[in-house]
Amino acid sequence: MIQMSGISHQFTIGKRAKEKVVPVLKNIHLQVEKGEIMAIVGRSGSGKSTLLNLMSGYIRPTEGRIVVAGQDVTGLTEGQWADFRLANYGFIFQSFQLIPGLTAAENVELPLVLKGVDKALRKRRTEELLEQVGMAEYMTHYPGELSGGQQQRVSVARALVMEPPIVLADEPTGSLDSENEKSLLTMIRQLNHELGITFVIITHDEQVAAIANRTLRLRDGAVQHPVPVSGSVQGGVGI
Ligand SMILES: Nc1ncnc2c1ncn2[C@@H]1O[C@H](COP(=O)(O)OP(=O)(O)OP(=O)(O)O)[C@@H](O)[C@H]1O
């Protein structure tokens, strides 16, 4: 589903005369299989977010090739990446990243508006999803009127609204208490099993890593060691 080959990335910081190159990722090879949950773990600064940003086209690799859903995305322009993300990825963040001035329903609906989907269809899809994540009663609430756990449910609904084959999550449980964490993980497992959605999840959290089929460990920008297969997804473990 996602293949990264020979990926290296360095940031260049500072002004011209004092430019400094910061190498972050070194020769990463990874393959995320369709229908699996992959956890990415590693110490702060090991390059986890950089890896996710490369997968989703927010930054471009210094070296290497990225193929997602059969398409070589390495050379996409910014505009092409925007379309590609809308069609292929849903995102879940630690800080939810809901738009404060929009209701729960409007937040979920927004990607459909951007895509020009018909209003009646948007409404139906939004209601279905908010129902699915247990937030039907809160459709007209603003994010500021919802608990952290409720906001994360809304953000899951938003991530799913375009029916993406892949969901990328950056510390999705990082702001949740243990009860909300448990219910989010149950939801992720269900979505993975029932809809076959592929998940890539950055996490510090052992409970999250425990639901993953595989765990990729980064250390100082490199893959730490080969990844054992521990879940139900078969074959082709190309890390
Ligand atoms: N835009 C940038 N410019 C320069 N350096 C950057 C930039 N983004 C990240 N870095 C550096 O790259 C390294 C890896 O950062 P990254 O955010 O990928 O780590 P991480 O593993 O996600 O960390 P954390 O768990 O703290 O979020 C760090 O040393 C960081 O300072």
Describe what this molecule looks like in 3D:
This protein is α/β, with parallel strands linked by helices and 239 residues long. The protein has one domain: Rossmann fold. The strands form two sheets. A six-stranded mixed beta sheet has the order 6-7-8-3-9-10. Strands 2-1-4-5 form a four-stranded antiparallel beta sheet, covered by helices on one side. Helix 3 crosses helix 4 and helix 4 crosses helix 5. The longest helix is centred in the last third of the chain and has 18 residues. Adenosine-5'-triphosphate binds next to strand 1, strand 2 and helix 1.
Task: Give the helix/strand layout.
Layout: E1 2-13, E2 20-32, E3 37-41, H1 48-55, E4 63-68, E5 71-72, H2 78-88, E6 89-93, H3 104-114, H4 119-132, H5 148-160, E7 166-170, H6 178-195, E8 198-202, H7 206-211, E9 214-219, E10 222-223
Parallel strand pairs: 3-8, 3-9, 6-7, 7-8
Antiparallel strand pairs: 1-2, 1-4, 4-5, 9-10
Helix pairs in contact: 3-4, 3-5, 4-5
Residues 11, 13, 22, 24, 42, 44-50 line the site of adenosine-5'-triphosphate.
